[in-house]
From TrEMBL:
Protein name, entry field: Glyoxalase-related protein domain-containing protein
Residues of the Glyoxalase-related protein domain: 3-55
InterPro entries, alphabetized: Glyoxalase_8
Pfam families (alphabetical): Glyoxalase_8 (PF20066)
Length: 250
């Protein structure tokens, strides 16, 4: 089955077939016809899509040293290094959701992809860390930002923050380069430190200038220890009359 990447070959076949029937069209006209067969307005639109796909293939072959992509439906994402982020000639890491899904099958609101790095938390025991990065977005539907987490063991999270409740938190829609930062304490029992940036839903997010540094304890935290919340939650029965509710759509 032909795909839009076969457009030029399809256009040549179309020109040859029509000439055999004494119908003469230019190569440019045939390209526009092929583009419309793929539901696009013209060849320029189709050509741009082909170039993006080729760039995506190259990114997948290269990878990014020390960084890993993790997410649901990974084949529906384009991710890796973009040497010309937002046409600015700036090198940045990219996560872009590329799959077009019919509405009746849509799972876009649940789709999540992150580029992340994992290191030892031991050198940072008892220290306050700041992670920051420059982010830019296009048409982000459900959010994009940075995140950081400290684990005691797999599945045992000690501290986590993705700025969801922070005033300078998730980015939506279109945003030029915007600084995001997270401040958290590394507990002495922490084993692994994980950080990165993510895209939820449709759109694209670029990240550049990641920096991880130890800061003074006077710098305010952006999150609290999850272990503390768990202790408060389970020390005594709560909400037995079901009067307190939470909004799960937020």
């Amino acid at each position: 089955m032909y795909t839009y990447r076969d457009a030029k070959r399809m256009a040549k076949v179309l020109v040859t077939s029509l000439r055999e029937k004494s119908v003469d069209i230019s190569h440019g006209e045939s390209l526009n016809i092929i583009a419309k067969q793929f539901g696009l307005d013209d060849w320029n639109t189709l050509s741009a899509r082909i170039k993006r796909a080729e760039a995506s293939d190259e990114r997948r072959l290269q990878g990014i040293q020390a960084w890993n992509f993790v997410g649901e439906y990974p084949t529906e994402f384009d991710y890796g290094v973009d040497e010309n982020a937002l046409g600015s000639s700036r090198r940045a890491a990219l996560i872009s959701y590329t799959q077009a899904i019919p509405t009746r099958y849509s799972h876009t609101a649940k789709v999540f992809g992150t580029l992340m790095q994992s290191v030892s938390a031991v050198p940072y025991h008892g220290k306050r860390l700041e992670i920051c990065a420059d982010l830019a977005t296009e048409r982000v539907s459900h959010g994009a930002t940075i995140w950081m987490r400290v684990d005691k063991s797999p599945g045992h999270v000690l501290v986590f923050d993705n700025l969801k409740q922070h005033p300078d938190g998730w980015l939506f829609g279109d945003n030029s380069w915007t600084k995001r930062r997270i401040i958290l304490d590394v507990p002495p029992e922490g084993v692994s430190l994980h950080f990165g940036f993510f895209l939820k839903g449709k759109g694209s997010v670029w990240a550049a200038n990641f920096d991880l540094t130890v800061v003074d304890n006077s710098v305010p935290l952006t999150a609290q220890a999850i272990e503390t919340v768990r202790e408060q939650t389970w020390t005594a029965p709560q909400n037995l009359d079901f009067a307190k509710v939470i909004d799960l759509t937020q």
